Amino acid sequence: MEIRSYADYLRTLDDAALIAMFTHRPDLVTPVPPDIASLAVRASSAPSLARAVDALNKWQLQVLEACAVLTEPFSDKELSAVTDKSAIFLLSGFIERGLIYQDKDGYRLPNTLREVLGNEVAGLGPASLAPLKLKRLEDAPPAAKKVLDAMLWGPPRGAISDIKKPTAGVQWLLDEKFLIPFNQQTVVLPREVAIYLRGNKVHRELEAVMPEIIGSPKNLKNVQLASIANITTFLRWTEEVLNYWSQEPATALKSGGLGVRELKELSLHLGVDENCAAFVAEVSYLAGLLTIDPDDKILPTHQFDLWLTQSAALRWQTLAATWLITSRMSGLVGKEGQKNTAPLGPELDRSLAASTRRIVLALLKESSDRAPELESLYKAAQWIAPSKRSGGLQQDYVAWTLREAEWLGITGQGQISQYGIEFLNGGDNSSIDADLPKAVNHILIQSDNTAIAPGPLEHEIAQELALIADVESRGGATVYRFSESTIRRGLDHGRTGEEIKKFLVIKSKTPMPQPLEYLIADVAKKHGKLRVGNTSSFIRCEDPALITQIIGDKRLEILSLRKIAPEVIICGHDAAEVMNILRSCGYLPAGEDSRGILLSGPRIQRAQTKARPPRIIGEIDVPDEIQIDGALRALRTGEKSSRKQSTMRNIATEALGSLPRTTANETLDLLVDYLQNQPSTSLSIGYADNNGLVSHRIIDPLKLSAGSLVARDHATGEVQTFRIARITGVAAL
Amino acid sequence: MTDGPLIVQSDKTLLLDVDHALSTECRRAIAPFAELERSPEHIHTYRLTNLGLWNARAAGHDAELVIDTLIKYSRYAVPHSLLVDIAETMSRYGRLRLEADPIHGLILVTTDTAVLEEVIRAKKIAPLLGVRIDNETIAVHASQRGQIKQSLLRLGWPAEDFAGYVDGQAHEIALKQDGWKIRQYQEHAAEGFWHGGSGVVVLPCGAGKTIVGAAAMAHAKATTLILVTNTIAARQWRDELLKRTTLNEDEIGEYSGAKKEIRPVTIATYQVMTKKKNGVYAHLDLFDTHDWGLIIYDEVHLLPAPIFRFTADIQSRRRLGLTATLVREDGMEGEVFSLIGPKRFDVPWKEIEAQGYIAPAECIEVRVNLTEAERLAYATAEPEERYRYCATTRTKRNVVEELVAHHAGEQILVIGQYIDQLDELSETLGVPVIKGDTPQKERERLYAAFRTGEITCLVVSKVANFSIDLPEATIAIQVSGAFGSRQEEAQRLGRILRPKSDGRSAKFYSVVSRDTIDQDFAQNRQRFLAEQGYSYRIIDADDVFQGKF
Q1: Statement to judge: residues B124 and B272 lie in one domain
Q2: What is the ipTM of this complex?
Q3: Is A240 in CB contact (< 8 Å) with chain B?
Q4: How many interface pairs between A and B have CB atoms less than 8 angstroms apart?
């Protein structure tokens, strides 16, 4: 078959070739195009090609640029002439990706690819239309040489003062057609001239290999140690942030995200800089451990409680895994000129974030025997992703990724650790648990009212201790301080002095210092001396005997009275109710308000709700002239428009006449029937769009699911979802 | 993970497990750069501060050593960020140096032009500087040597002072070791100071700071100005110097309210130095009257603010600060660092005690129950009167009486703040009282009598807090104190920590009213002692009356 177009070429491909192409360019099959023609359209569309080009490294990009520079069709030889012999090996890869294709004359590019690569590929101008005597360039006068040198490596456009009065050098070049006048002030260097002057090459330097990553090798053991320290620290930070916010929830900004002041507080609390605090908060947010609830409070979720129960390795993996794929760049927080980017806010998404991270981590993994320097790592990353689209790879992003990898413990001392490698390989990271310091189950109490947990404390003990003591210092160990207020907090949470003492005695390896014992006893003694509560009514009497009598009165049991002092009883019921019941039992109570003023006289009741007088119904007032006039005009206008509407309705009905009309149930039955019994029948349906406009479609039904029909639409050739409710009718063709 | 004795916390505190086999070794290793914050019985807390790290740099330790030490002794892996932070902090010291230049006089030299550019742009620094000599050097007004060090420290770029010291007028001084011998740590302290040029030696009360001063003078062999807190301390210095050194009476002068002698070794009081006449400091000239080779500041933590200002002007003279604690209630630790010098020597109290130089003391808090009437009166007292009220209750007097009776025959000091209370106590106990208006002569007579054992019990007010030497006091009873000052508590405990001739253990009672702010303040004060390793015991007043303690 003669190949006349890209589509024709695609038709010649076998399954394996197509599979390879789809593997490289997954966007070609999401969604699946209906036929090869559509595939060709998509594969040669600018967005799809741009994606494919983005995935190329510097060397591939250079060769592809060279291909784009050559006139079609071109051959291996032509390509290797302007680049290097080894460039030919890349061609098969390009073919696989569908970036070039081959016909009987040679290689060709899909038309749009040149646009995607840019107007001035490799700094080269357009091809000359006139034939050129390139040899003449050798004899160019010095002034012309100077002009050529300036334009040689691009950009190929040169500004001159006036095309009508060119300088001598420019004049010579224009005469020889070595420069093309572009407009009044611009001249362009034709491609052939530039390539000739570049020594018949396209690029000044071919970068066939990735620049080497320079870095200092670290002691592997120290890397592991540093990494595990980072991992523990990061887990502690996360827990810390969430615990902090569960006690004092931060309030999100109106524009979303965490305010500067809140961030500062958080960073002070953690004892880290604001960038790091922002990062910790972001990762917790990504992992779903915290959320911003509807009233703008930033609060931990239940997920956090589940997370706490997991092993350290799992906890860490949860955090690291979400970080790996996120498109958010928390490094943007606090960067100069990024005033409005708040952590947890809506403005942190960057399209390059995830890909940059992937590249950096891959490079770290590749150079696992050293701690790469930022500059060289950046150069290597640029080689891998040379595309300049959306600003290209940014050094900041690379630096932030390195910083964040260190915080997370993927690296230790800047070099990737075994945990990091395992994590990136998708391993289970259980070695982290084994290498983490063992949890301790005891504390050491000292006479300066501190308790020290000489290692990570078991969760339950830590929780209990956090209730009765303040954390004074964190790290490998935790220092708790007891004070009057912390003991009181414990008592407020329902612990008794004895319980606190017992807990400490059991958990402490050292004897309980006497001052602490006194402290607990002192606070416990004072705690709860004053009692505060709510009640609805009270009964008081200066005669304790009468009070005792009331308490003992069986008939009053329904009031569930409680004596709180010899002369006072409280009751959860309303005062009026209590008085009625007391009266009915033969007592003679008098009302008293909260200020102790006797409420004498009959009790006049008032409704508690707002007044809502009923609406007035009755004779309608006679309307005046103006009202009548207005009503008449409104009627006339309405009449006119409704006549117009009914005309339109008739037109529409006529149009729909040809459309099948069935009820929703019939539709469903018919569809099920066709799908089961005559699967390959095309059907005619009427379908209402979002605006209620009904259109006629010819479809091949594929399946029914969740109230929708999935079918191939003949008009677009695409697989589409039709909602059953919107199908006005079904008929076989 | 190793099994070291040290735990590095993220807030830059270091926890040292003292029961660990390597703890002594580790303590020695971290002592140069970490400051001991608390030393209770099991885990000692050290802190890495900027001042501490710079102190270490000043002593020639580099960041590598600090980091290696931490990694070596740490039980858990040390966060990398903390290590980086340490390295960065330490590298800040020494980027700027003060040097003497034959042409320009005092100059500020840097190894890092960016730092110099940063500091000369600082508002506080600019007026202190002279002409720019080259990229790395700028002249400093000679008179501003102290000022610039202070300001640079505040900026976080402490300057190393290599501008040298004047030798001062030579004067032969040597230690006279007949019948006594300088203790090893005293010698180390004096040497530490001498090699550092200027600085502070931290030793607990009773550990012989005077002797460290004398040893430093023997190193300097030059005329010396000694600044002390009060006249009595001045006399004690004088007596001590006569006993310990080759100096004779004519060579030592006293410069105080009473006498104005200027001799090769002159002892002046803070009070007279800060006395103002017609709005100006009248005795400032003292600093210039002699070509002093050494200036000693006793009780550096009490150094009044004006003295700092004078000290800023005499940066070319060697300065030795002596103190029991670097904690200043006014937070001027940075001034001590930049104007007197870095800390040169420090040993935890317990360590010295273990060496047998200080008698171990027992701290007992006696809780007194207020009577119903007293409680009511306390509850209704004006807030500003409350402390006074609960600190001077009648019930306390009974307890003190009981305690004094219990320890009859021992040397007892009753310490308090309120004169009325002290007068009452003195009357009840039938013992003399020393307070602010007690004439100097009378004070000395009473002290002498107490020392000889003629009187066994003495009631003293705040005036006795500092620098008096009561070697045979074995019991101290505190009835009221300043508002929870840690420093005062340390001083008071220092009183009775003096070595005893018969090895008896000293007791320190503080009598506290239960359930009042008195108790809260006591708790605050007690914390400092507990942090120093002295555990408190609490007993009830009833136990005292029943003799069960």
Answers
A1: no
A2: 0.73
A3: no
A4: 116
